[in-house]
Amino acid sequence: MTRRTRRSRTVTLAATAVVIALGATACGGSSSDSGSGTPGKGGTLTVLNKADFDHLDPQRVYTTEGQSMDQEILRTLTGWDESGSKPKLVGDLATDTGTPSKGATVWTFHLRHGVKYQDGTEVTAQDVKYGVERGFSSDINGGPPYAAQWLVGGSDYKGPYQGKQLDSIQTPDEYTVVFHLKQPVADFNETTTMTGWSAVPKAHDTGSTYDTKVWSDGPYMIKSYTKNKELVLTRNKHWSQATDPIRQQNVDGIDVRFGQDESAIDQQIKADAGTAQTSIQQWPIAGSDLAQLASDPSLKSRYYKIPAPGINYLAINTTRVKDIHVRQAIEYALDKTTVRGAFGGSAYGDYATTMLSPGIGGYQKFNLYSANPAGNVAKAKELMKQAGNPKPTMSIAVENTPTEEHFADAVKTSLEHIGIHVNISPIDASNYFSTINNTKNQYDLTWGDWIADWPNASTVLPTLFDGRLIKKNPQSNQDLSYLNDPKVNALIDKAATMTDVARRNATYGQMDEQILKDAAVVPLMYMNFSDMSGSKVGGVISDTILAEPSLVHVYIKH
Predict the structure, then answer these.
(1) C-alpha count within 13 angstroms, C-beta hemisphere, residue 18
(2) Are 54 and 433 in contact, with CB atoms under 8 Å apart?
(3) Whose CA is closest to 196, among 173, 169, 176?
(4) What average pLDDT is seen over the chain?
(5) What are the Cα distances from residue 538, in Å, to 155, 226, 271, 535?
(6) Considering Cα of 56, then 60, then 62, then 68, what sign does the dihedral take?
(7) Of all residues in the chain, what percent are helix, strand and coil, respectively (each to 5)?
(8) In 383-413, which positions are buried (b, 16+ CB within 10 angstroms) versus exposed (e)?
(9) 20: left (phi over 0), alpha (psi -120 to 50) or beta
(10) Spatial separation of the C-alpha atoms in residues 205 and 223, rounded to whole Å
(11) Distances (CA, A) of 288 to 280, 488, 529
(12) What pairs with residue 45 in β-bridges?
C-alpha cells in the first residue's frame, strides 16, 4: 500500500506469525489512552495533513492516509480489531471472517443485519457486489489489483457502467455474497479488509467524482469536501455501535485541513495551544524535526512511533537504465546515511538491504551490495568503467516536500561521484502516486515506499515486480522499476499456488534475491512512522497494518 510517505502493499504469506511479530512491537507513545478511562463524547478532532488524499473513493484509495480516513466513513467485509496486543481479524460488514470452500477457491460472507447508510437505508449484498464491480471500470483506477487478479472472469470484465455484471460474485439473498476465485487464496479474508471490498449503493455512485461524495455506512459522513483545502466529517446518525465491532463514534466531527508545510504542522502540534490541543497528524513527522521530537520527554505521552510492515526504496527504471553495470553502480554509490538523514535519521528506521522487511513472511536476511551503508564509491566506479564510463543524465521523481527534496539532493550528490548527473522532478504530494503510477510518466529513478496490504509477502513482491501487470494497469502501475524478469514472474506464479507456508516463504525469499540481482531497486530503510497529537486527544491506537495512528476509538478529553 502506498505511502505516508507510505505506500501500498502486495504479498501473500502466512499472516499469523507476522501479525504476532507486528503486535509485539505495535504501540508507541500514548496508546495507553486507548485502554484507560472513559472516552469523552463530543468535540471536534482536527487532522492536519500536508496534502489532500489521492482518493477516498473506496475502490480507488491505495494510500495509508486515505484508507485510515475511510475507516471513519466506510465499513469493509472484514477488518482488523487493533484494540488488543496484536491485530485480530474480525467480521466488519460480515458477521464473521468468511467461510472458504472448494479448496479456498470459493469464499462466502454473510452480512450483518441493520448496518445502515447515512440516509437510513440498509446495506445489502448487492451493494457489496456493485462496489467490487465498479473497481473494474477504467474510470475507477488506482486501487489494489486483487479483484482483477483473482475473481473468475476478472481479467476481461470492464465494470458495471455498461450494464454488465461479474458472474463470479453471487448474491443468493440480501445478506449473502459469494466470491468465486480462479485460484486458491488462503488469506482472501485478509484482502477483504481493504476498502475495495466495501459497499457502494448504485443510486449514489457518481463515478470518477465519487471521491468527494462517498456514501457513508460508517460512523461519520462527508459534510463538505473542498479538494486541497478541507474535508469536514459529521456523525452518521444511522450508524449503530451494536453492528460495529471495530469503530466508536466519540467525537461530533472530524475536520481535516490540507496544505500546511510538514514542519509547520509538527511545530503547531508540539506547541499544543488552541486547536492544536485537539489535533493529530496523519503524515509522518518531517525528517528535519524527527530526531529532536523523538527524544523530547515532554512529548512522550502524545508521540506515536509505529513500525511499518514496509520499505522505503529507490526504483531504477530497468527499461531506461538498461545496463546492469550502471544499475549495480547506483546500488554501491548511494550513501544511505545521508538518505536516512533526510527522513530523520535512526528514528525513521534501520538500513535496508532487501525489499521484504523483517517480520514479514518470506523475509530472508541478505546483502548483495555495499556492507557499509555509506556506500562503496570505488566499487561503483569500477562498475561504471565496465559499462564504458558513460556520463548519463537521469531524472528522479520525488514528492514536493522538504523531506523528499533533501532526499533527492542526497541521491544527486552520491551519484555525481560516479559521473551520473541527476535532475530532480518534484511532484505535488497529493498527486504523487497517481502521477508516477501512470506509465506515460516514466522517470529514470523514482522514490517509493510500500507497506504490505496485509502482513504477507504476497502483498509486496508480486504487486511491485510482476512485469506482466505493467500493460494491464497503465494508469495504476506499481512496478516503478518496470522490471519484467521471466525468472521473477515464474517465482510469482510458483508461490501463488503453494499451500505449504514454509515452502512459499522460501520462494518469496528467492524472489527478493533475484530482484536485487537485477539491481531493479535500492532498498533504503525498513520504516517506522512517527506522528504526534495534541494533549486533549485520547483513544489513539497504533495501527500496525496501515502504520497510521488509528482514529477508530479517538475521543477529545474535556
Answers:
(1) 32
(2) yes
(3) 169
(4) 91
(5) 45, 27, 17, 8
(6) positive
(7) 30, 25, 45
(8) bbeeeeeeebebebbbbbbbbbebbbbbbbe
(9) alpha
(10) 17
(11) 19, 38, 14
(12) 254
Give residue 298's Cα distance to chain centre: 30
* Contacting residues for 81 by C-beta, under 8 A, at least 6 apart: 87, 88, 89, 90, 245, 246
Distances (CA, A) of 232 to 193, 220, 512: 24, 10, 42
Q: Which amino acid makes up residue 230? A: E
Determine contact, residues 145/124, Cβ cutoff 8 Å. Answer: no
The low-confidence residues of the chain, meaning pLDDT below 50, are 4-37
Long-range CB contacts (< 8 A, 24+ apart) of 472-475?
Answer: 472/145, 472/148, 472/155, 473/141, 473/145, 473/437, 474/438, 474/439, 474/440, 475/138, 475/141, 475/142, 475/434, 475/437, 475/438, 475/439
Q: What is the pLDDT of residues 271-327, one digit of tens each?
A: 999 999 999 999 999 989 999 999 999 999 999 999 888 899 999 999 999 999 999
Note the pLDDT tens digit of each residue in 218-268.
999 999 999 999 999 999 999 999 999 999 999 999 999 999 999 999 999
Neighbouring CB atoms inside 10 A of 98's CB total 21
Say how far apart CA 35 and CA 323 lie, in whole Å: 55
Q: Which three cell numbers stand for residue 216?
A: 457513508
CA 246-26-540 angle, 5° bins = 50
Residue 368 and residue 133: Cα distance in Å, rounded?
43
Beta bridge partners of 532: 303
pTM of the model: 0.81
Positive or negative torsion for Cα 69, 75, 80, 82: positive
pLDDT at 391: 97
Can you tell me the distance from the alpha carbon of 327 to that of 227, in angstroms, rounded to the nearest whole number? 39
- Rounded distance, CA 119 to CA 505, Å? 46
User: How many angstroms separate the CA atoms of 556 and 276, rounded?
Assistant: 12
Length of the chain: 558
CA-closest candidate to residue 111, choices 121, 96, 99, 101: 96
Cell numbers for 311, please give them.
520499505
Q: Rounded to an integer, what distance in angstroms lies between the CA atom of residue 209 and that of residue 254?
A: 21
| Buried/exposed code over 253-265 (b: 16+ C-beta within 10 A; e: otherwise) | bbbbbbebebbeb
> What pLDDT, on a 0 to 100 scale, did the predictor assign at position 55?
95
> Where does 334-450 have alpha helices with state H?
336-343, 377-386, 402-416, 432-436
CA distance 306 to 284: 10
| Backbone phi, psi, residue 183, to 5° | -150, 160
Residue 38 confidence (pLDDT)? 66
Q: What cell does 399 get? A: 514528492
Cell numbers for 166, please give them: 461479474
The candidate with the shortest Cα–Cα distance to 198, out of 284, 286, 77, is 77
Cα 394 from Cα 322, distance rounded (Å) = 12
